[in-house]
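DATA SHEET
Item: assembly model
Revision: 1
Owner: S.N.
Input lines:
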Amino acid sequence: MTTLTKASETSAARENPARRRRRVDRLPYLLLLPCLVVICVLLLWPLGQVVAMSFFRLNNVRQLRGDREWPWVGFGNYAEILGDPFFLTVLRNTVLFAVANVALTMILGTLVGLLLNRLGKRMATFVASCVMLAWATPALTGTIVWKWMFDDTSGLVTWMFNALPDGLSNALFGRADWTGYGWFNSPLLFFSILTLVVVWHSFPFIAVSVLAGLKSVPSELHEAARVDGASSWKVFWRITFPLLRPVFGILVVLSTIWDFKVFTQQFVLAGGTQDRPTFMLSIYSYAEAFSPPPKYGLGAAVAVILTLILLLVTGLYVRMVLKQEEES
Amino acid sequence: MNRWKRLAPVTAVVASAAMVLAGCGGSGDDEAADNSKLTVWMMGEGSEAQTKFLDGVETEFKKKHPDTDVVVQYIPWLEAPKKFQAALAGGEGPDVTELGNTETQGWAAQEALADVTGKLGGWSEGKDILPDLVKNAQLDGKQYGVPWYAGVRALYYRTDWFAEAGVKPPTSWDELVAAAKAVQAKKPGTYGIALPGNSELPFYSFLWGAGGEIATKQGDSWKSGYNTPEAQKAVKFWTDMVTVHKVAPPAAAGWNEIDARTQFATGKAAMAFGGSWQAGAIKKDNPEIEKVWGTFPIPGPDGKPAPAFAGGSDIALWKDSKKQDLAWDYLTVLLSKQKDKEFASSLGFFPVYSDLVSGGEYANDKFMAAFATTMQNTKLTPLTPKWVEASRTKTVTQAMNSSVIKGQKTVEKATAEAAAEMESILNAK
């Protein structure tokens, strides 16, 4: 190791004149500056504020205006949250939900990506446009439509279940009349519907990314494998997957981040912040901070915990990107 | 070098968690006391009748202040807490605001509202306001709001369906279930009663009817009444309507009062809880229904009408407003006996003046009689600024009832847990 570093140091010293000449290359950084300023103002400053707020007892709006003292509580807010058994429920919900959604999104997205790669040009365009529509629908609008579909009296899903032959419905579910059925009553059912909505929203991105990856794989490899008599299953796991491994890695990490911070879909489906048994971290933070009476300090602490979890995932992502670039 | 480009969305994602909390801050500039405009916030969607009434109030107010324009803004009830918080954080609020009488204490504790103890004491007409309602707008002995109108809930029912099923408006719990079952049997595909399983106020009538209490103050601390046999009896009856008698569907566990009333308005339920003021909203959904509806007081278990929560609104002055005196002048016009009565009769509320409520005209009104009867027997939710957290944020009562309806907890477990949670909220330092 030491010899290696020394070697690189000497080589760096030898390259010194060349480096000086490269100073002109500061231009790109200069061009990045406005972007960095925007990021600092819009992202880093509020982030810092949230971290600061999490160390104070903030229960009055007037404190935010600076009209009142900010009593310092150190890690008091964190202790209160971590000591509350409810936090475990929230964390469990968040993690299980993220794991399930990442898995389902990846599987469905990959399958659709493979399908798109196989389809003829016209059909591929058609399917891709349909899929992209789901992605282009704003989370709020899409979720409201889903909620209507699960309406207990006039929803499409309720109607479809009612349309099942009574005998079949009875045999499968033990009930024939679905009017008035509480679709959002049990946490498990609620999370299933939420998963449906979130996966529906996020699989198109995976599908399109996988498709882009597939297009970069030389088709000769696949052809050769087929000539050798490999099944589709084998072709995928022996050729496609290893070649697309970097793409999959990044997609998994991105999906994890997205699914950890699901808010809109949950807020709309649950009809606000009333359904506490189905809380996940982001809605928990929001409810603590903004439901009367406000507890901004506690809410900020939850947000920081969520941010730390996400930073961990982000760290993995950055490492993966760097490693990949080293390899290539 | 794509590295940073790829990192950008990640950074954005991470920081967006923080952004939620970042919207606050920034202070409003002090504006000079400019009397050309008085901003009034009213709750709800603003019906035509209400707009017309408020125009009349403005005309009256302008007699004294000809140079002041009154700007009325309507705020949906559910938006109000967010709107108040934003106004308080930003420093740009109304001068006068309406607010639900269960929320006055909470906002007073947040220092949103001006102390009007002195002003109310010096206003002669205000001395006739019902004392219970006045007390409900106080915090630590100071007055932060003035009652505007009050109302109670009763049960709306379909007179035609009841006649078909041969049942009369029930006066006890047993009769209530029997009537619901009879109508449901006669009208397949409908519900006997649209039970708002996710609402608390109609439930309190059953709690109080059974002799239970939400919470009472004993010395320095609050004691919840939920783990008493009386409260358990009420929870059992309320939830049995779904789980045992099946006169309301399982989905009712998630219904709020509006959801439930919509079932009634659209001809899917034979009975629904509602205030007298909600008649307009129901008619809006179904204009025909007026011909076939009636009302009766929420029954107690034993044949007497149950007590009901005296819901309603207060009018408060915004603490940050620079026009306190002007705002108070508007308040006294809006709340004058004459205007209060006008408003009440146009929108189906009761005025807050004791001499007006006890007048015989309501008791003789076919539609209003049920409400007038109940107005004689009202109760309040616990008088503490912490109540809003138990009621609106943690929704202790709603969660208790829903969990039983959903079959997640037994009545005993749900009531015991709700009692413990309520006590921990109300007694928090």
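QC remark: Confidence is low (pLDDT under 50) at residues 1-14 of chain A.
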